[in-house]
Amino acid sequence: MTKAIPTFQYIVPASQPTPGKHLQKTFTRGLAPFAFNGARPSRWGSRNLYTSASTGVHCEPYIASQGRNQQLNLVHTRRFACATDSPTMEYKMIGPEHCAQVIEHLRHNFFADEPLNKAAGLCQNGSSCAALEDHCAEAIQDRMSVMAVDVKDAGTYKIAGVVLNGILKPNDTAKALEKLDSSGDAHFRKIFEMLHKHNLKHNLFEHFDVQSMFDVRILSVDSSYRGQGIANELVKRSVAVARKNGFRLMKADATGIFSQKIFRSNGFEVFSEQPYCKYTDENGKVILPVEAPHIKMQLLYKAICGDDQDDKVPNH
Ligand code: ACO
Fold first, then answer.
1. Which ligand 1 atom minimizes the distance to the CA of 218?
2. Percent of the chain whose pLDDT exceeds 90
C-alpha cells in the first residue's frame, strides 16, 4: 500500500542561529515524538539525516533562504513501498502512438505540479497547454522516451510515470529561444526564456565538444505512484537508452530538489545553477516565485563511456 511522503517545513528566524530546540519542540508537539540524531545545527546544510527515535523514519534537511529568515525543510526520505519490484509495473519505450495518452498523463501530473509551471501559473490540473504539449510531442518523436505502466487486467494499463528524452543539437536552444518570441503563452515564455538563456550561457556543447546530447526534458510520475522509486528507475533506464544509442553526454534541467536528487543519484553532476530568487526583472522583482523547498534550477550532465562501468567526466 502506498503512502504519500510528507514534507515538513519549519521557519527559522535569522536571529536564532541555533534553533535545534525549537525544531525538536515543533516535532514533539505536532507530530510523532522525534529525536534528532545529534547532528549539529551548523551542519544542517550538509545532509545529515535526522532520525525519529520512535519510528526510524529518516528526515533530510534542506535549507532555503526566505528574506531574513531561513526555511528548514525536513523531508521524509524513507520509501514506503517500492513500485519497481511490483509484478504489475512494466517499463516500455514510448512511441508516437502513445503521444495522446502521455499528454493526458502530463496534464494531470506534470503541467500543474512541476515547480516552474506552478510558479508561473501555467495551467490548472487536468487542463491543456498547447505550447508545453508541442514541446513534449517533439521529444516523443525522437523515440528515446520511456514510460512506467501499471498493467491492469486484459492488457490495459495506466501510465504511472514518464521520462521524455530528446536529441539536442548545438543550435537547437538558440532557435527555440527565438521561436519563443512568437509564442502567445506568456507563462510558457517566462519559464522557457529562463531555461534557454541559462543553457546558452552555460554551454555544454562548447565545454564538452560534442555535436549532440541526450536531453532528459520531462520527468513526471502520477501523484498516486510517487515515492516508490519510479522516477529513479525512469532516469536509470534513460541512461541505458542513451548509452545504447551511442550518446557521449546527457543533460537535464532539474527544477526541484527531488528531481535534482534523483539525477545526482544516477551519476549526474551539477554544471551550473540558477537560484530562483536571483532571476529578476528590471525592477528587481522575482520572475518565477518558486515555492519552497525548491530554490534553484540545476543544469546537470552525465558523461557516458562505452562500458557499463563508471562514467568518467571529460575535461571538467
Ligand atoms: N519528498 C521526499 N523525498 C522525495 C520526494 C518527496 N516529495 N519525491 C522524491 N523524493 C526522493 C525519494 O525519497 C527518493 O530518495 P531515495 O532514493 O534516497 O529514497 C528519490 O527522491 C527518488 O524518488 P522517486 O520515488 O524515484 O521519485 P518519484 O517517483 O516520486 O518522482 C518526481 C519524483 C518526478 C519529482 C515527482 O514528484 C513528480 O512528478 N513531480 C512533479 C513534476 C516534476 O517536478 N518533475 C521534475 C521536474 S525536472 C524535469 O522534468 C527534468
1. 50
2. 65
